[in-house]
Write a structure and sequence with these properties.
The protein has 2 domains: about 5-215, DHBP synthase (Alpha-Beta Complex); about 240-325, Threonylcarbamoyl-AMP synthase, C-terminal domain (Rossmann fold), CATH 3.40.50.11030. It contains 10 helices and 14 strands. It has helices spanning about 15-25, 45-55, 70-75, 85-90, 110, 125-135, 155-160, 200-205, 280-295, 315-325, and strands at about 5, 30, 40, 65, 95-100, 115-120, 140, 170, 180-185, 190-195, 240-245, 255-260, 270-275, 300-305. It has a 10-stranded mixed sheet, sandwiched between helices. A 4-stranded parallel sheet has the order 11-14-12-13, covered by helices on one side. The longest helix has 17 residues, at about 280-295. The structure holds threonylcarbamoyladenylate and magnesium ion (MG). Threonylcarbamoyladenylate binds near residues 123 and 183.
């Protein structure tokens, strides 16, 4: 079956109801969110969710997020709805905050990867919300890329990564935040951030008592990753090296792109320079698309300056650390 890529022109576009029909029949639809594109399936249909795992080549040990259109739907999927969840949801939903909570029995085991918790998120993208409402059920949706590859911020990224494994791709243009949601675990003894994202830990700490806020590298064992975060992740095909600005880098091995923040140094002949602004939101929106572009242009190596310190850059440093061969970001 040939993948259909459909531009969505407005919320009354028939593509949305066609997508809902595909999902209700157990198919897979990729859709835009404000973070990255998601690969959606009916979250209450275990066979449909199994197709997500097959299409992505995702290990069965890695659970998926359920996407809902409102807090009431979220509450029907959990066995506890603590005050902290209510307060955070009032403040941040729809938006790039995923909450992990004790799951209700209605949540299929495959969604939870056999665990007792479920991750819930209400995306702030009109097409995503319209689609969830049209289906009338939660949508299971990981990022719409093959496992361990770069996340998609354009519909074309989905088509080139997953191709015919998807029944339909709704094209809503480039995603705005560009980095995956912040994941906050409220299902354990203490609240923990499992994945840094567009909402900074310091911001959440204002609403969550006892939140563990970590910066940069934390010793193994002290930080608990989301199950899918342990391995090398978000990787381009090119070798990505993160360097300290001003330090030398070898130019001998293969075609090379150099990515700098704020300013670019004088670069050797033949090295492509890419200048990113000293603005974490703008860089977050651009990062994955840039890595996709440099991959498509065939660069063997990408040398990227280490982003600035500070919490606003935390999610960007995290993604680069996971994408690079050296643990330097
Ligand atoms: O922004 C996002 O969150 C995007 C868009 C599509 O919503 N989704 C996304 O999904 O990034 P995915 O599957 O690529 O990453 C979700 C992460 C994985 O690392 C997974 O292990 C973790 O969330 N996760 C899912 N359910 C969990 C649970 N019950 N407990 C802990 N971590 C969970
Ligand atoms: Mg992902």
């Amino acid at each position: 079956m040939v993948t259909l890529l459909r531009k969505v022109n407005g919320l009354d576009d028939p593509a949305i109801s066609e997508a809902a029909d595909i999902l209700l029949a157990g198919g897979l639809v990729a859709f835009p969110t404000e973070t990255v594109y998601g690969l959606g399936a009916d979250g209450l249909n275990p066979e449909a969710v199994a197709r997500i795992y097959a299409a992505k080549g995702r290990p069965a040990t890695n659970p998926v997020i359920l996407h809902v259109a409102d807090a009431v739907s979220a509450q029907s999927l959990v066995s506890q709805w603590p005050d902290t969840a209510r307060i955070l949801v009032e403040r941040y939903w729809p938006g790039p905050l995923t909450l992990v909570l004790p799951a209700a029995e209605a949540v299929p085991s495959i969604v939870r990867a056999g665990g007792s918790t479920v991750a819930l998120r209400c995306p702030a993208h009109p097409v995503a919300l319209a689609l969830i409402r049209a289906v009338g059920r939660p949508l299971a949706a990981p990022s719409a890329n093959r496992s361990q590859h770069l996340s998609p911020t354009l519909a074309q990224h989905v088509a080139s990564s997953l191709g015919e494994a998807v029944d339909l791709i709704l094209d809503g243009g480039p995603t705005s935040a560009g980095l995956e949601s912040t994941i906050l675990d409220l299902g354990g003894e203490r609240p923990r951030i499992l994945r840094p994202g567009p909402i900074a830990p310091g911001e959440l700490a204002g609403y969550v008592g006892g939140l563990e806020v970590w910066e940069g590298d934390v010793k193994a064992g002290l930080r608990q990753d989301a199950p899918g975060m342990a391995e090398r992740h978000y990787a381009p095909r090119a070798r990505l090296e993160v360097v300290v600005p001003g330090d030398g880098f070898s130019t001998s091995a293969g075609s090379l792109a150099y990515v700098g923040f704020g300013t670019l140094p004088a670069l050797p002949e033949g090295v492509r320079g890419v200048l990113l602004p000293l603005d974490p939101e703008a860089v977050g929106a651009r990062l994955f698309a840039l890595l996709h572009e440099l991959d498509d242009a065939g660069y063997a190596r990408i040398v990227m300056e280490r982003p600035p310190e500070g919490e606003a850059w935390l999610a960007i440093r995290d993604r680069l650390r996971r994408a690079s061969t050296k643990e330097q970001a």
